[in-house]
Design goal:
395 residues; 9 strands; alpha+beta
Length: 395
């Protein structure tokens, strides 16, 4: 690792930590600004650190527990508290050309499946601690929001990328990283001291390996026929997970992800009834997601097309699932409501209630629809009555 590169990265992270908009008590005269004589100003106290300060009282107990769980005693060991726990870290995952600069790993909870590959989209929870400090310097758990990134793109300090590359899905591990892999010799004062050694608690929540999808796309149609059902299901699941990840940010992107997964499944010819059932089972998940994406964009006809196919598979004895059937009919109901077709909407909702009578959302929608129909009927009666009175009709 190039030393200059590491120090430039530390500068970047200094900006990320401290870039914050503040307001001044009074405006600054442009002539004073460029005069070179200097000037003084006062900053409005708008509590821009309140979000951190107020939360600290609530999380100190959690932080203390976290520190205690790794056996850190700030005063018990010469060379700093982290020196006293090095024996807990049984694996060295990286070493620098600079002497005594390395990353140590302790696996707390093993994960499953393959390691997170380079260029995969990954979501992690992490907390980082500077030696000798009880409070975390950074924590996604305190923000209650996982950190998502593409591994290897350089958006993290080197220690995090190198650590995550050694982990599997659902794995929890701790890492001791020397300054060369963190914020360099200069650190990011005052939050990160010079030559700071950091402890990271990291959990891999999920990752999506786009590399496999790219490999599939590169295959000729005849070569795709040789892919096993197991691999086809994995590819479709990757597309579905990617769609789920994108849904809140862009339902259009999510729709394209789901459609990709559906086409992968639809392009595979099952060898027997068992394979057909497995394909349909995965199709149901993607079809319901496709229909929901269409609903968000007002594509009600496409929404019902995908929903009907899902219902067709869900009516197979081997795949019957009352909850999913209720969900499918509920989506159908919402599509009809978007077109203000109350009769069709009620029929779909009655089917949803029949399959999932305990679902609170469906029950609430049914009550709402009953009220809406009653209102519509009353409005229609009043309209007819008014028309009759104007025309001199007698009841």
């Amino acid at each position: 690792m190039d030393h200059q590169e590491t120090e430039s990265q530390s500068g970047r992270y200094h900006d990320q930590f401290y870039k914050k908009e503040v307001r001044l008590e009074e405006g600054i005269d442009a002539q004073d600004l460029f005069s070179g004589k200097g000037f003084t100003f006062s900053v409005k106290d708008e509590g821009f650190e309140a979000d951190i300060t107020n939360d600290m009282s609530k999380i100190n107990k959690w932080v203390s527990s976290e520190i205690s769980s790794v056996g850190i005693d700030p005063s018990a060991h010469e060379g700093g508290p982290f020196k006293g726990i090095e024996h807990l870290f049984t694996e060295t995952i990286a070493e620098s050309e600079v002497p005594d600069q390395r990353i140590l790993k302790q696996t707390v909870k093993p994960g499953s499946g393959p390691l997170v590959p380079s260029r995969a989209f990954v979501k992690i929870h992490y907390s980082s601690y500077v030696e000798g400090h009880d409070e975390p310097t950074d924590s996604t758990r305190l923000r209650n929001r996982p950190h998502g990134f593409i591994l290897g793109e350089g958006v993290n300090i080197p220690a995090i990328d190198l650590a995550v590359a050694t982990m599997k899905k659902n794995e929890k591990s701790r890492f001791l990283a020397d300054y060369q892999f963190c914020y360099g010799k200069m650190g990011v004062p005052p939050r990160i001291p010079m030559k700071a050694r950091l402890l990271f608690d990291i959990e891999v929540m999920m990752f999506i390996d786009d590399n496999k999808i790219n490999e599939y796309d590169a295959l000729a149609p005849e070569d795709r026929k040789g892919i096993s059902l197991n691999d086809i299901l994995k590819l479709a699941a990757i597309c579905r997970e990617k769609g789920n990840e994108n849904f809140k940010k862009s339902t259009k992107t999510a729709y394209n992800n789901y459609l990709k997964g559906y086409k992968i499944l639809d392009g595979h010819s099952p060898a027997n009834d068992d394979e057909e059932t497995q394909l349909q089972s995965e199709k149901i998940k993607i079809l319901l997601n496709l229909s929901q994406s269409c609903l968000e964009h007002g594509k009600t006809i496409d929404c019902r097309m995908y929903t009907k196919e899902a219902i067709q598979y869900l009516n197979n004895e081997a795949l019957k699932n009352p909850f999913k059937l209720g969900k499918a009919h509920y989506i159908m109901h919402k599509s009809w409501m978007k077109e203000c077709k109350l009769r069709e909407a009620k029929q779909a909702l009655e089917e949803a209630v029949k399959h999932a009578p305990e679902d609170a959302t469906i029950r609430e929608a049914f009550v709402k629809l009953e009220r809406e129909q009653a209102r519509e009927n009353a409005l229609e009666r009043d309209t007819m009555k008014n028309m009759g009175e104007k025309l001199g009709w007698r009841g």
